Structure formats: structure tokens, C-alpha cells
Amino acid sequence: MKIFLDTANIEEIRGAASLGVIDGVTTNPSLMAKESGNYRTALAEICDIVQGPVSAEVVADEAGEMIRQGREYAGISEHIVVKIPLLPEGMKAVRTLSAENIKTNVTLCFSANQGLLVAKAGATYVSPFVGRLDDIGHNGMDLVADLVEIYENYAMTTQVLAASIRHPQHVLQAAKIGADVATIPYKVLMQMFRHTLTDVGLAKFTADWDKVLARQKARARS
């Protein structure tokens, strides 16, 4: 499973990229609103850092304007994936952009029926929002599982990108179900590294090595 970082923060992206564990980045207007600077400039910098898929979201509800913005974003870098809202007008935009070999990521998917239509329109990715479904009492991972099954049944090429990830368990569940991608906040990425037994083991190794160094110093003085 590929891991994308869900952020527009350049420092977080640089830090995660240096670890060698992320494959791409997803952004959206809400994430960009938290950062300073020009959106186009930031997208170009993110693409340069990651050298992988970077989702850039259009802000429109009419197909023509989505297409115009999508073409503009695609001109920034070969790595840009145009993020489109799951609307009938959005599917028109996906169809047109896909025909022009521009990659798309359809966002705000909350049902398998929606996901089926996204794949029929030819999107590169679909983003089921796991955490937001959990928030209203549904199991968001059930949607991920449904989409994986449907796409496999009919050899559909749209990739399932698990989004709205809230904690490491979501990442594990997405991987076990067979999601193609999970896009996760920087905080969750860092949490994935942690385990109590790892911390305890490292502390013991360090303490034991300190004893070895202390013995060596004692011998050197005698």
C-alpha cells in the first residue's frame, strides 16, 4: 500500500520525504488555508520534494471551471493529480481531464454507489472519507472494503485512496483490506513509528552499552 502525506506544510513534507516512507501528498483548500504563500508556488515545491503524486483541489461546482483549473494545475508539474468533488459536474470534468491524460482524484466519497460512478467516469483515484463516516456512527472501513471488492470484480483501474485517516489503526485496517493508498496526517505518520516495546528495548540497549563503555574506561585507568 502506498502512503501519501495529507498536508500542505512544506516542513512536514520535507521531514517525511527524508524518511523514505511516503509516496505522494494530498492537499485541499482547508489545508492550504493553514499555510502562507502562493498555492501554485507551494504545489511546485511539494512536487519537487516528493517526486510522486500530489493532489491539488479545484474550487468550483461547474464542469467548465473545474476543467480550466485542472488544466492549470496540471501545467505545474507532471506529478499533479487534480482533485475533483464528487458531483455530476465533477464527473464531467473527470471524463474530460482523463481523456487528456490528466490524473484525477475524486474527493468526498461516502458511498459505494458514488465510488462506482467515479470509476465509470475514469478517475485515477477515489477518496473515501473514513473518519467522517466514523464520526456519524458508520464504519468507514466498510466503504473502503466495498470499493476494493467492486473494483476487483470488474477490473476497474481506479485506485482506492483511504482518506480522513484519524489514527494508526485506520492505516493498518486500510492495508489489510487492500486499499491502494492511505493518505495520512504527519502526526499519524509519526505515531506509526512508536511502540512501547521498541522504546523499552532501545533504552535497555543504550543502558547496556553505557555499561560496556564504563568498563572499558575503568580498564584504561587501571
**Poorly predicted sequence stretches spanning 5 or more consecutive residues:** none
Could you say which overall geometry the principal axes of the C-alpha atoms support? elongated
- H/E element string? EHEHHEHEHEHEHHEHEHH
Work out the helicity level.
55-70%
Termini separation? 57 Å
Sequence of strands across the biggest β-sheet? 1-2-3-4-5-6-7-8
What's the number of helices?
11
Main sheet specs: 8 strands, parallel, barrel
Radius of gyration: 21 Å
Query: What structural class do helix, strand and pairing data support?
Result: alpha/beta
Mean pLDDT, as a whole number?
94
Q: In brief, what are we looking at here?
A:
The protein is α/β, with parallel strands linked by helices and 222 residues long. The protein has helices at 10-19, 29-33, 39-50, 63-74, 88-99, 112-121, 130-135, 140-153, 168-177, 186-192, 196-221; strands at residues 2-6, 24-26, 54-57, 80-85, 104-109, 125-128, 159-162, 181-184. The protein has an eight-stranded parallel beta barrel, surrounded by seven helices.
Notes on the structure:
The protein is of the alpha/beta class and 222 residues long. It has a single domain, classed as Aldolase class I (TIM Barrel), CATH 3.20.20. It is 56% helix and 16% strand. It has 11 helices and 8 strands. It has helices at 10-19, 29-33, 39-50, 63-74, 88-99, 112-121, 130-135, 140-153, 168-177, 186-192, 196-221; strands at residues 2-6, 24-26, 54-57, 80-85, 104-109, 125-128, 159-162, 181-184. It has an 8-stranded parallel beta barrel, surrounded by 7 helices. Helix 6 links the parallel strand 5 (104-109) and strand 6 (125-128). The radius of gyration is 21 Å and the shape is elongated. The termini are far apart. The relative contact order is 0.12. The mean pLDDT is 94.
